[in-house]
Amino acid sequence: MSENTTEVIVGGAVLAVAIGFLVYASQATGFSASGSEYQLTASFRSADGINVGTDVRMAGVKIGRVTSITLDPATYRASTEFSVQQGIEVPDDSAVAISSEGLLGGNYVELLPGGSPFYLEPGTEIEFTQGSVSLVSLLMKFVGGEGDEEPAE
């Protein structure tokens, strides 16, 4: 009888850990259905390094996530949709950029708030964007000597 009791306890513990992991994973990826966010859109020339689920940050604090990335066949730009937490009002002259956490870190979407007293409505497109910068192209410019150099006399 003690073997059956032990098996039931161990099975219950494994089941509880699995349920806990699923709850954690759904919250970490933003998969859980919460109505406390609104959508904004932006169009980037290059969206390298971001994908669905990438953090959206303002002043280094996560305020949302990227919900979709598609190619606009008319402009050949990456159209992105991202969510922002309710209660965080974004001025209508704000900019959005794809930033890097460092040389080895990943990329994230950064909202750069403007100074306007008017705020973006849900579903609005942010027009001031800066796409991702390719580290390889920057290194090639550095190695190749391109840039701001003094002309030889």
> What level of helicity do the residues show?
10-25%
The biggest sheet, with number of strands, parallel, antiparallel or mixed sense and barrel status, is: 8 strands, mixed
Instruction: List the strand order in the largest sheet.
Output: 7-1-4-3-2-6-5-8
Quickly give the structural class.
Answer: alpha/beta
Low-confidence stretches: none
Protein described:
- The chain is of the alpha/beta class and 153 residues long.
- It folds into 2 domains: 33 residues; 98 residues.
- It has 2 helices and 8 strands.
- The longest helix is centred in the N-terminal third of the chain and has 28 residues.
- The relative contact order is 0.18.
- The mean pLDDT is 85.
List the defining traits of the structure above.
153 residues, alpha/beta, 2 domains, 8-stranded mixed β-sheet, 2 helices, 8 strands, extended
Short description:
With 153 residues, the chain is an alpha/beta fold. Helices cover 25% and strands 33% of the residues.
Question: What is the topological layout?
Answer:
Layout lengths: L1 H28 L7 E8 L10 E4 L2 E12 L4 E9 L9 E6 L6 E6 L12 E2 L1 E3 L4 H10 L9
Parallel strand pairs: 1-7, 2-6, 5-8
Antiparallel strand pairs: 1-4, 2-3, 3-4, 5-6
